[in-house]
Amino acid sequence: MIRRTIVLAAGAILLAASLAGTAPVAAQGKKIVVAIPGIPPIYSVTIAFVAEKQGFFKKHGVDVEIRPFDNGTAAARAVVAGDIDMAWSPTPPVINQVSNADVPLVAVYGMPNPDWVIGTTEAGKTCKDIVGQEVGVDSINGARSVALRSMLTGCPGVKIEDTKQIALGSTPGPALLAGQLKYAVLHLDDLAEIEHQGKKLNILLAMKNTNPTSHYLIMVARKDNLAKNRDAIVRTVAGMIEAARFMQDPKNADTVAEIASITGHNKEVNKAALKAFLDIDFWAAKDDGMPRDKIEAVAALMKKIGSINPDKEPVSYDKFVDASIWKDANAMVK
Hints:
Layout: H1 2-22, E1 31-37, H2 46-53, H3 56-59, E2 63-69, H4 72-81, E3 86-90, H5 91-101, E4 105-111, E5 117-120, E6 134-137, H6 143-151, E7 164-167, H7 172-177, E8 183-186, H8 188-196, E9 202-206, H9 207-210, E10 217-222, H10 223-228, H11 230-248, H12 253-259, H13 267-279, H14 292-304, H15 317-320, H16 323-333
Parallel strand pairs: 1-2, 1-3, 6-7, 6-8
Antiparallel strand pairs: 3-10, 4-10, 5-8, 5-9
């Protein structure tokens, strides 16, 4: 009897040790609040909802709350203010913030390939026809606004000042569909929705052609918060990495399309959009999504087009990017 009790006790200890080796160690109970752009959220940040719904944050031992903002620029400002721990924000405006005001933001993960286009529902138009027209953007100096300015560098003689920007948050696509305006800065999922509605969209300019070295979204945190809560932030990025890999597997397309309903699109549109985004390697799954050449090219372009003040220099890559967070997160995923 005594021997049996000893054997059972030893077995229980081994089982407990085995479970301890596989379960994630919680990040000291710290909740990480992640801001995302768009109400409803833009399609690109589906990655955050996949990480949440598939349990990848929980798997890596971190409690994450996703909080939508009107746009990514506002989300970055909330991080600077200390109201939010991390944010997915458009790279150009963030670089402008850091360069112009030396705000203490550091980039930890990225989406390197912008999908921006300038589209119109009118036939036979060229980029020069945008002069004097209303153009749907998210907010003045927001991501779509900066994208508009950048793409217009590919239309000789036309500047952003020649247009009338209309701030519509994440809804320029629906406004275009409803006939409220004729020109807008759009995402790939906007194109999928317009096609699904049976309307013809004419693309005047595409970022991939006018600015091939551009960079789209960056995940940022305050430097002091990163130092204080590094473990929880690494675990949050690990959840995002796992989500990116999950989204790339074709057998998960239906699941991703269901989760992406948060954007307001139906499942058919979401599946079409998912394929379009994957075709341009939108979500970084094999690296940190922050290539030096792209980050530096964006900074140089912002200086060139006047978004960075004349008396300021663009933030350097090494000051802006902390590559160690992704490396530690990736090791955790593996």
